[in-house]
Amino acid sequence: MKSVIFTxxxxxxxxxxxxxxxxxxxxxxxSGLHRLRARQQPGGEGAGxxxxxxxxxxxxxxxxxxxxxxxxxAKNGQMGNQKGGYLVPAKxxxxxxxxxxxxxxxxxxxxxxxxxxxxxxxxxxxxxTTFDELVDAQQNVYNVGYDLALLLATxxxxxxxxxxxxxxxxxxxxxxxxxxxxxxxxxSEPGLDGHDKFEADSSLTRNDFFLDNGNDFSFNGTLxxxxxxxxxxxxxxxxxxxAMSAYRKQRYDQSRAENGNFYFGPLALLLYGAxxxxxxxxxxxxxxxxLATVSSFFxxxxxxxxxxxxxxxxxxxxxxxxxxxxxxxxxxxxxxLEQYLKYPVLFGGNTGKAGGSxxxxxxxxxxxxxxxxxxxxxxxxxxxxxxxxxSVPSYLNGVLTPSVKALSFVLEKLTSNPTFKNLGCPIPLT
Length: 430
Ligand code: HEM
Ligand SMILES: *[C@@H]1O[C@H](CO)[C@@H](O)[C@H](O)[C@H]1NC(C)=O
Ligand SMILES: *[C@@H]1O[C@H](CO)[C@@H](O)[C@H](O)[C@H]1NC(C)=O
Hints:
Blueprint: H1 16-20, E1 24-25, E2 87-88, H2 112-119, E3 128-130, H3 131-142, H4 146-159, E4 168-170, H5 176-179, H6 183-186, H7 221-234, H8 241-258, E5 263-264, H9 269-280, H10 291-298, E6 300-302, E7 308-310, E8 320-321, H11 329-342, E9 348-350, E10 358-360, E11 366-367, E12 370-371, H12 377-382, H13 385-389, E13 392-393, E14 399-400, H14 404-415, H15 418-421
Parallel strand pairs: 1-10
Antiparallel strand pairs: 2-8, 3-4, 5-9, 6-7, 9-10, 11-12, 13-14
Helix pairs in contact: 3-4, 4-14, 7-8, 8-9, 8-11, 9-11
Bound molecules: protoporphyrin IX containing FE and 2-acetamido-2-deoxy-beta-D-glucopyranose (NAG) (2 copies).
């Protein structure tokens, strides 16, 4: 079906390809192409469902803070020293040595950064974690800045239906019986595997939810191989800014061509954040994001046939030092925009046919599917913050509106915090 073509105004003008792209609909064009989209959440007995989720009857929290091995001195969800450059795990710190997850009891999910942190007991080893563990581990392992650590932990809990009463979250599949304060009241809490929330299509090494019967969290070695090839051809062997921006674009193009239900909404901003983590957080202090480092975090090695396979050892590489400067909210939003502006794409979704017509979305700095290169400093700072406070277009004909409960949680965790108070982002009303 031929459809209304984008008009050349505002943000779209910066990217003439948008106007020329065939089959691009404006969501306001009334073209009537919106269709009911399949509910893309794990449910019943499927991949990521509670029925298939590892279960540990003897939950043990993350290894407790030990003043002998302080790392960033982050504990109880508070701000640490904000100073990296230390060895992780520290010499003699047996509590944080790598222990491979047990597939029967330990939940792992789509995030290699959190999986590795759990394998080293910086998060509960069984993968049922808490807000404070997430805030502490991001600071202590990776020297994520306190502002960004708070923001990501908040997004993790509110976007994926972690529990804002118990402040618990599964880093993978649905573990409602263990995260919820009252399953009858909260309904199911899908954890980080839950689709089209924090998890999204066109991940670096995970299949799209719709293309693999709801399995959007398992490692795919073919995709890792593609990423390594781009690192080879574009980054001189390193998974650097150039390589990761190019590979992010490649994955977008692949999903748009192959997945009729491809949806790349505002929450896909987080995917650019995640790809920046590969070159900003994974390298040892001052070192490159080389193949040895990245394959260690992703838990993959080459088999005798030359294929990348998952080895269940998502691990901090040997002799690894946390980055020296904290990685802040402004750092990550800058990297998100630089990657995006290097290869601008449309935010929105396929309307049912792979490679067919596409609906664009608007939200905050994203207007008619694009972000303008003239985005203001305030809009930049508020880019991720708004995902936690705004009504985010979720499916093409739906929005994800934070509940009053979720908004008061955000207010408590972020808005009352001096680092976010002064940004001038729109404050949610509860
Ligand atoms: C509370 C903090 C965090 C939460 C809630 C979180 C959650 C997630 C989720 C849901 C995904 C899947 C996104 C997708 O659909 O592709 C993801 C991907 C990813 N995360 Fe995290 N994450 C956090 C912190 C970190 C940290 C500290 C690192 C550091 C290395 C990291 C590295 C990554 C990478 C590299 C990916 C992309 C994996 C892939 O696409 O194959 N994350 N994260
Ligand atoms: C987005 O598209 C609509 C409808 O075509 C138009 O009225 C609006 O001005 C556009 N906004 C921007 C920022 O391009
Ligand atoms: C891995 O990804 C490739 C490329 O998208 C796909 O063809 C293949 O089916 C995926 N493999 C698995 C086991 O899902």
